[in-house]
C-alpha cells in the first residue's frame, strides 16, 4: 500500500495546539468553528482533520488550557464550546514567542528575507 | 491523560459522539447553504469528516492506560476460556492449590523452626560446646561435657568467650501445697551466668547471682513461664516466696519470659524450673573429669572466632587428658552454633519434606504446563487464524500467561487456606518439635506464596507458550489430519515434560519407600519383652529430705511394690530404675576382676531392679537366677547381666560366678544371672547392660512396671491412690504403657514416612494423569494414520503395541533417570533411616515395578481405544 504523502494536516501537534489556542483568543467557539477559522485564516492551506482536532481539544482541556461547556451554536444546535483559560492565555503567549523565534531562525537558514519584526499573526 | 478521564471514558465517548454529530450537522447545513442537495451535502460532509469511529477509538485509547486495559481484557478472555472447560480448570487449580499450599506450609515450618533467629540477645554469637575422643573418630562428636573441665576452659578462654553451663537432665518432686497436687517436674541446673550469657531478661524478679551459685547459699529457684502460669496462675507475688522441691524449701527469685526456651542437643524444652548448679550438684560430680553431665553455651566476645575458641579449648582438654588418663576422659573439644544445636534433630527431616513438596510443586507446574500445551494444541487452528489476521504475537503469549496466572492465583488462594489448615494440624500433631508453637503466617510467608504463584505462572505459562510455535502459522493452517506428523512437536514437548515428571516421581517414591521400610522396621522391633501393650510403667521419686536412710528408702519401695501386687487386675509388678524404651538410664565404666584391665574400659548400662522385675516384665533368664530377697542394702553386691554384656565381657566363658568392679568403688559384684537383651530406645540396638538390686544402691526414684492381660492403663488410678495413701506429697509421673512409649518415640519416623508417601502418591497420580493425557491426545492425533495402518492390514494387537510403547517410552526413560537421581540423593536421608540401607534393592525394585504398572495402566486405555478404531470412520475423521 503506497504511503499517504504527509499532508499539511499532519502538522506538528504543538502547532495545531497553538493555532487552536490562537483561534479561541478572539472568543469561545465549538469544534466546527475552530476548524473553519483555521482553514479560512490560512487561506485554505491548512485543513484540520477530525482525527487531529478532537484529540487536540481533549489534550488541551486535560492540561487546563481550555475549558468546555455545552451551548447553542449559531444555527441553534447543541454544541460543545471551548474557552481559553487564564493558563491557556499564558501558554499561547509562550508558544507564539517560541514560534516566532523558530520561524525567523528557519527563514534565516533558508536564506529568505527576514520576516518583518512588526508583522504579527 | 488523567485518572478522571480514565474512569469517565464511557461518558466522554458519548459526549464526543454528540460533539461530532453537531459538527457534522454544521458542515451539512453549510454545504446546503452553498447550494448542494441535502444528500450530496451529507455525503460531502461525511467524506470530509472521515471515520468518526476511528476518532473515538483514538481518543478512547488516549484516555486509557494501555497496559491495564490489555491486562483486563486478557483476564476477561482467560476467564471465558477457562469457563468453557471447567474440568480442566478445576483439575489445574486443585493441583496448584495442593502444590502451593504444601510448599507454603513447609516454608513456614522450615523458616520458623530451622532458620528464625533464637529469642536471645545477638544469637549469632552463641555456640554450644561439646567434647569427644579424638582417638575414636566414629564416636559421637557432640558428647556432653564433664564439670571438672569447665572452670579450666573458662579461665583459659577468658578473652575469647563467656562460658556458661547447664545440666538439663534433672528433676524434682514439687510438694503438695495449698490444695495443689504433688507433681514430678523436669528441671535444669545451671551456672549463675547461664541466662545472662543467653541474654534473656526475667519478666519478674531477678536471675541467679554469683552468690546463689554456691554450696552454702540459700536455696533459690527460677520458674519457667509456663510452669508459673499453670501452677501459680501467673501470680507475680510468688517471687520471694518459698516452694518445696524434694521436700526442701527453695525461694523463687525470678520468672523466665514466655518466649524463652532452651532445648539443646540434649533436650531441655520441657524444663519447668532452674536451680543453681553449684548449690545442687554433688561436689564430687563438680570436680570429675569422667562424668559427663553438662552442656556448655559460649558467647563469643567481639572479634573472637569460634575456630580460635575450639583450638584453645582443645589444647586445654589435651592437657586434662594427659593429667587424668582415665578411659572416659575426653581429649577433644568441638561444637556448633546454638541454633544448629537446637534444631539438629529436625533438620534433615524437615528439609527432606520441604524438598518433597518442592518436587510436587515442580510436578504440578509440569502437569499444568502439559495440560495447557494440550489445550494450545487443540486450539492451534484458532491461534493460527488469529495470528494470520494480524493478532499480536506478544498479545497471544500474554493471553497464555494470563491463563496460567489465573490458575496459579486461584490455586494459590486455595493453597494458602490448605497451608493454614496443614500448619494447625502440624502444631497439634508434632508439638514435640522445637518452636513449633511459634509458627504463624506473616509477611515473609505471604511473599513466599506470592513468589510461588508467580513462579508457577511464568513456568507453566511459558512452557505452554513455547509449545505454540507461532512461526509456523501457515503450516498449522495447512496442517490437516492427513499429514501424519500432526502435532508431533507439541507432543514431543509434552513427552519431555513427562520424562521430567516421572523422574521426580521416582525420586519421591524411592524416598517414601525407604522411609516406610525404615518405619516398618522400627515398629516391628521388639524392646526385648513380649506384649509391650500389656505393660504399664510410671515413675515415682522419693525426696531424700524425708526418706533419709537407705533403709527408709528401701522400705518405702518394698511396701509400694507389695501393695501394687495386691491390686486386683495386676498380674505381676516390678521395680526398675529405668524401663525398656524409656530412655538412657545411665551407664558406668567397669572392669572384670578376673581379667586384665582394658585401656578403653568396659562401658555398661546400669539398672537397679527388684527381685521380681525380670519375671514381671518377662525378660527370660539365659542362665543363673534373680536376686534373693536378702540381697539388699549392705549385701546388694550381686549383679545380673544381659546377653550383650555377657558377649562383650565374657566372649568364651561362663559369666556366672565372675566378679565386676564398678566405677570408682572398691566393692566387687558377683554375677549371678544372665538375662535377655532389652533396648533403652526403640531405634537403638540393645546395649550391654547390668542390673543390680534397686534396694540399696542409692536409688531414690524407680519406675514401677506392671503387667495385666487386659486394659492395663486402667490400673494407673488405683496405683496413684495407693501412692497417695502412703505419702500425699509424692507425685506419680510419666504414666504410659510401653507400647505408647514406642508409638511416641516413633512419631517422627511415622510422620516423615507418611508425609513423604502422601507426596509420592500425589506425584504418581499426577504423572499417571499426565501420561494418560499425552497418550490420549496422541491417539486422537494419529487416528487417521492408525486408520490407514488398519486398512492396510495391521492387526489390533500390533496397533495396541504401537500405541502402548509410544506411551511407555517416556515413562521408562523417566524411570531410568529417576533411579539414577535417587541413587544420588538418598544418601542425604541416611540419618533418617533405621536398619535400612539407602540403596535398598527391594525398595528400588518395588518402585520400578509400581511405576511401570501405573504407567501401563495409564497407557492401556488410550491404546485399547486406538486398537478398537473403526478404520473407515477414522479415515473420515476431521
Describe the model.
The complex is a heterodimer of chains A (121) and B (878). By secondary structure, chain A is an alpha+beta fold. Chain A has one domain: Winged helix-like DNA-binding domain superfamily/Winged helix DNA-binding domain (Arc Repressor Mutant, subunit A). Chain A has four helices and three strands. Chain A has helices at 13-25, 31-41, 50-62, 86-109; strands at 29-30, 66-72, 78-84. Chain A has a three-stranded antiparallel β-sheet. Among the domains of chain B are: 3-64, no CATH class; 66-115 and 351-479, no CATH class; 144-329, no CATH class; 547-726, no CATH class. Helices cover 52% and strands 15% of the residues of chain B. Chain B is elongated. The A-B interface holds A 30-32, 35, 49-51, 54-55, 58-59, 62, 73, 75, 77-80 and B 1-2, 5, 12, 15-16, 18-20, 22-23, 25-27, 29, 49-50, 52, 54-55, 58-59, 62-63.
Q: Kindly report the spatial arrangement of strands forming the biggest sheet of chain A.
A: 1-3-2
Q: What does the overall shape of chain B look like?
A: elongated
- The oligomeric state is heterodimer
Q: Uncertain segments of chain A of ≥5 residues (pLDDT<50)?
A: 1-10, 117-121
Structural class of chain A: alpha+beta
**What count of structural domains of chain A?**
1
- Written as H for each helix and E for each strand, in order along the chain, the element string of chain A is HEHHEEH
Uncertain residue ranges of chain B: 481-487
Q: Predict the CATH topology of chain A.
A: Arc Repressor Mutant, subunit A
What is the helix fraction of residues of chain A, given as a range? 40-55%
CATH architecture of chain A: Orthogonal Bundle
Radius of gyration of chain B: 38 Å
The overall average pLDDT of chain A, rounded, is: 79
Count the beta strands of chain B: 22
Strand content of chain B: 15-25%
Structural class of chain B: alpha+beta
Q: Biggest sheet of chain B, open or closed, and with what strands and sense?
A: 11 strands, mixed
Major sheet size, sense and barrel closure of chain A: 3 strands, antiparallel
Please give the count of helices of chain B. 27
How helical, in percent, are the residues of chain B?
40-55%
Amino acid at each position: 500500500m503506497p504511503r499517504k504523502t504527509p499532508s499539511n494536516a499532519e502538522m506538528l501537534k504543538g502547532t495545531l495546539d497553538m493555532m487552536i489556542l490562537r483561534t479561541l483568543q478572539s472568543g469561545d467557539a465549538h469544534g466546527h468553528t475552530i476548524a473553519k477559522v483555521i482553514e479560512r485564516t490560512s487561506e485554505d492551506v491548512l485543513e484540520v482533520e477530525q482525527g487531529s482536532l478532537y484529540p487536540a481539544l481533549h489534550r488541551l482541556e486535560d492540561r487546563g488550557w481550555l475549558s468546555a461547556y455545552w451551548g447553542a451554536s449559531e444555527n441553534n444546535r447543541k454544541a460543545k464550546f471551548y474557552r481559553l483559560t487564564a493558563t491557556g492565555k499564558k501558554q499561547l503567549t509562550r508558544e507564539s514567542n517560541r514560534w516566532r523565534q523558530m520561524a525567523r531562525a528557519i527563514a534565516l537558514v533558508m536564506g529568505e528575507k527576514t520576516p518583518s519584526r512588526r508583522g504579527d499573526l | 491523560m488523567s485518572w478522571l478521564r480514565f474512569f469517565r471514558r464511557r461518558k466522554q465517548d458519548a459526549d464526543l459522539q454528540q460533539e461530532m454529530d453537531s459538527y457534522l450537522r454544521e458542515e451539512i447545513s453549510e454545504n446546503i447553504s452553498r447550494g448542494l442537495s441535502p444528500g450530496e451535502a451529507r455525503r460531502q460532509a461525511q467524506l470530509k469528516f472521515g471515520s468518526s469511529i476511528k476518532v473515538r477509538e483514538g481518543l478512547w485509547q488516549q484516555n486509557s492506560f494501555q497496559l491495564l486495559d490489555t491486562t483486563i481484557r486478557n483476564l476477561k478472555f482467560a476467564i471465558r476460556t477457562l469457563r468453557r472447560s471447567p474440568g480442566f480448570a478445576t483439575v489445574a487449580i486443585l493441583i496448584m492449590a495442593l502444590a502451593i499450599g504444601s510448599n507454603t506450609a513447609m516454608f513456614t515450618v522450615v523458616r520458623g523452626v530451622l532458620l528464625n533467629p533464637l529469642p536471645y540477645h545477638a544469637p549469632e554469637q552463641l555456640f554450644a560446646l561439646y567434647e569427644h575422643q579424638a582417638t575414636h573418630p566414629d564416636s559421637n562428636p557432640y558428647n556432653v561435657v564433664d564439670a571438672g573441665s569447665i572452670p579450666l576452659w573458662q579461665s583459659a578462654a577468658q578473652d575469647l568467650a563467656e562460658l556458661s553451663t547447664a545440666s538439663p537432665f534433672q528433676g524434682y518432686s514439687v510438694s503438695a501445697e495449698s490444695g495443689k497436687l504433688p507433681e514430678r517436674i523436669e528441671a535444669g541446673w545451671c551456672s549463675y551466668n547461664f541466662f545472662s550469657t543467653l541474654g534473656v531478661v526475667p519478666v519478674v524478679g531477678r536471675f541467679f547471682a554469683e552468690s546463689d551459685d554456691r554450696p552454702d547459699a540459700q536455696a533459690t529457684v527460677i520458674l519457667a513461664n509456663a510452669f508459673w502460669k499453670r501452677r501459680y496462675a501467673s501470680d507475680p507475688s510468688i517471687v520471694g516466696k518459698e516452694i518445696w522441691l524434694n521436700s526442701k524449701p527453695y525461694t523463687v527469685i525470678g520468672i523466665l519470659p514466655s518466649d524463652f526456651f532452651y532445648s539443646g542437643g540434649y533436650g531441655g524444652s520441657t524444663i519447668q524450673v532452674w536451680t543453681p548448679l553449684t548449690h545442687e550438684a554433688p561436689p564430687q560430680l563438680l570436680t570429675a573429669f569422667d562424668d559427663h553431665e553438662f552442656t556448655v553455651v559460649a558467647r563469643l566476645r567481639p572479634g573472637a572466632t569460634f575456630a580460635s575458641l575450639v583450638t584453645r579449648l582443645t589444647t586445654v582438654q589435651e592437657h586434662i587428658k594427659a593429667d587424668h588418663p582415665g578411659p572416659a576422659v575426653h581429649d577433644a573439644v568441638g561444637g556448633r552454633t546454638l541454633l544448629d544445636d537446637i534444631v539438629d534433630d529436625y533438620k534433615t527431616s524437615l528439609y527432606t519434606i520441604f524438598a518433597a513438596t518442592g518436587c510436587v510443586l515442580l510436578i504440578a507446574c509440569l502437569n499444568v504446563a502439559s495440560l495447557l500445551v494440550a489445550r494450545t494444541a487443540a486450539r492451534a487452528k484458532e491461534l493460527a487464524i488469529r495470528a494470520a489476521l494480524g493478532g499480536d504475537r506478544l498479545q497471544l503469549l500474554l493471553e497464555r500467561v494470563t491463563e496460567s496466572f489465573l490458575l496459579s492465583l486461584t490455586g494459590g488462594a486455595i493453597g494458602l487456606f490448605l497451608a493454614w489448615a496443614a500448619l494447625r494440624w502440624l502444631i497439634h500433631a508434632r508439638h514435640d518439635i522445637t518452636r513449633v508453637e511459634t509458627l504463624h503466617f506473616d509477611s515473609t510467608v505471604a511473599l513466599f506464596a506470592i513468589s510461588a504463584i508467580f513462579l508457577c505462572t511464568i513456568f507453566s505459562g511459558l512452557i505452554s507458550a513455547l509449545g505454540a510455535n507461532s512461526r509456523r502459522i501457515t503450516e498449522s493452517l495447512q496442517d490437516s489430519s492427513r499429514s501424519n506428523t500432526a502435532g508431533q512437536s507439541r507432543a514431543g514437548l509434552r513427552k519431555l515434560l513427562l520424562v521430567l515428571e516421572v523422574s521426580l516421581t521416582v525420586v519421591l517414591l524411592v524416598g517414601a519407600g525407604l522411609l516406610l521400610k525404615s518405619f516398618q522396621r522400627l515398629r516391628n522391633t521388639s524392646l526385648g519383652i513380649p506384649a509391650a501393650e500389656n505393660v504399664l510403667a510410671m515413675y515415682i521419686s522419693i525426696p531424700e529430705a524425708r526418706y533419709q536412710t537407705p533403709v527408709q528408702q528401701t522400705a518405702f519401695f518394698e511396701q509400694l511394690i507389695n501393695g501394687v501386687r495386691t491390686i486386683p487386675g495386676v498380674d505381676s509388678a516390678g521395680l526398675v530404675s529405668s524401663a525398656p524404651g524409656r530412655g538412657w538410664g545411665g551407664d558406668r565404666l567397669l572392669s572384670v576382676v578376673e581379667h586384665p584391665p582394658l585401656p578403653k574400659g568396659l562401658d555398661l548400662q546400669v539398672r537397679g531392679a527388684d527381685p521380681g522385675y525380670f519375671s514381671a516384665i518377662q525378660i527370660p533368664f539365659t542362665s543363673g537366677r534373680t536376686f534373693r530377697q536378702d540381697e539388699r542394702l549392705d549385701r546388694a553386691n550381686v549383679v545380673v547381666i544381659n546377653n550383650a554384656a555377657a558377649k562383650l565381657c565374657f566372649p568364651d566363658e561362663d559369666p556366672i560366678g565372675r566378679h565386676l568392679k564398678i566405677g570408682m568403688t572398691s566393692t566387687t559384684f558377683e554375677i549371678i544371672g544372665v538375662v535377655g537383651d532389652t533396648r533403652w530406645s526403640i531405634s537403638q540396638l540393645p546395649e550391654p547392660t547390668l542390673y543390680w538390686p534397686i534396694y540399696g544402691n542409692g536409688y531414690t526414684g524407680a519406675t514401677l512396671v506392671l503387667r495385666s492381660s487386659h486394659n492395663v492403663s486402667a490400673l494407673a488410678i488405683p496405683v496413684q491412690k495407693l501412692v497417695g495413701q502412703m505419702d500425699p506429697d509424692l507425685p506419680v509421673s510419666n504414666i504410659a504403657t510401653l507400647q505408647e512409649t514406642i508409638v511416641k518415640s516413633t512419631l517422627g519416623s511415622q510422620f516423615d514416612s507418611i508425609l513423604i508417601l502422601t507426596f509420592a502418591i500425589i506425584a504418581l497420580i499426577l504423572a499417571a494423569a499426565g501420561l494418560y493425557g499425552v497418550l490420549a491426545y496422541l491417539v486422537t492425533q494419529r487416528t487417521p494414520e492408525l486408520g490407514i495402518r488398519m486398512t492396510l492390514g495391521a492387526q489390533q494387537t500390533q496397533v495396541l503395541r504401537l500405541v502402548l510403547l509410544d506411551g511407555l517410552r517416556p515413562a521408562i526413560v523417566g524411570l531410568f533417570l529417576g533411579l539414577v537421581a535417587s541413587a544420588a540423593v538418598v544418601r542425604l536421608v541416611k540419618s533418617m533411616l533405621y536398619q535400612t540401607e539407602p540403596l535398598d534393592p527391594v525398595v528400588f525394585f518395588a518402585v520400578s515395578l509400581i511405576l511401570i504398572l501405573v504407567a501401563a495402566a495409564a497407557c492401556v486405555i488410550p491404546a485399547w481405544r486406538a486398537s478398537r478404531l473403526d478404520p473407515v470412520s477414522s479415515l473420515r475423521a476431521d
